[in-house]
Amino acid sequence: MAHHKSAIKRIRRNGRAKVRNSQYLSAVKTAVKKFRQAVLGAGQGTFDKAEVRPLFVKAQSALSKAATKGVLHGNNASRRIGRLAAMLRSAEAGQVAKANVKATKKSAAAKRAESATDAPAKAPAAKAKTKASSTAAKKPAAKAKK
């Protein structure tokens, strides 16, 4: 428990800020969720450009406002807005599969497994590449000096 008067006031102020910040975050999450659901509706054939565009603007506005207030980091908000814009573009272009997939990084194990399955197919191409580069290295350079 705080003993100083200023510390007690700080605790009260932090409590008010926490409530306010959680309201901004909740508004951001709701706006983004509504936009994503509208875009994914394109997969079921219910994509309406006139309906989705205002939801994007609302989500973008909520993210920018949260960044301005310091609830989210500016780069975090920009990254999220960029991803939502990419979803909107792909949905408007009719590529619902791209809009539906969230951008995620592959784990190291998944990358190793993928490279192990592709290794036999890539081996002949790599061999030809090294042979071509070694023959090119043996030939004298035909470039004129400046």
Structure, explained:
The chain has helices spanning 5-40, 49-69, 74-92, 96-100, 108-138. With 146 residues, it is mainly alpha-helical. It folds into two domains: 5-103, Methane Monooxygenase Hydroxylase, Chain G, domain 1 (Up-down Bundle); 105-134, no CATH class.
Secondary structure layout:
Elements: H1 5-40, H2 49-69, H3 74-92, H4 96-100, H5 108-138
Helix pairs in contact: 1-2, 1-3, 2-3
Keywords:
flat; mainly alpha; 2 domains; 0% strand; 146 residues; Methane Monooxygenase Hydroxylase, Chain G, domain 1
User: What string, H for helix and E for strand, traces the elements in order?
Assistant: HHHHH
* Average of the residue pLDDT scores: 80
* Regions with little confidence, pLDDT below 50 for 5+ residues: none
**CATH architecture classification of the largest domain:** Up-down Bundle
CATH-derived topology of the largest domain: Methane Monooxygenase Hydroxylase, Chain G, domain 1
**Helicity level, as a percent range?**
over 70%
Class of the largest domain in CATH?
A: Mainly Alpha
Structural class: mainly alpha
Number of domains: 2
Summed up, the helix count is 5
Measured distance between first and last alpha carbons: 77 Å
Query: What about the largest sheet?
Result: none
Radius of gyration: 26 Å
Q: What portion of residues belong to β-strands?
A: under 5%
Number of strands: 0
What overall geometry do the principal axes of the alpha carbons give? Answer: flat
Output the CATH homologous superfamily of the largest domain: Ribosomal protein S20
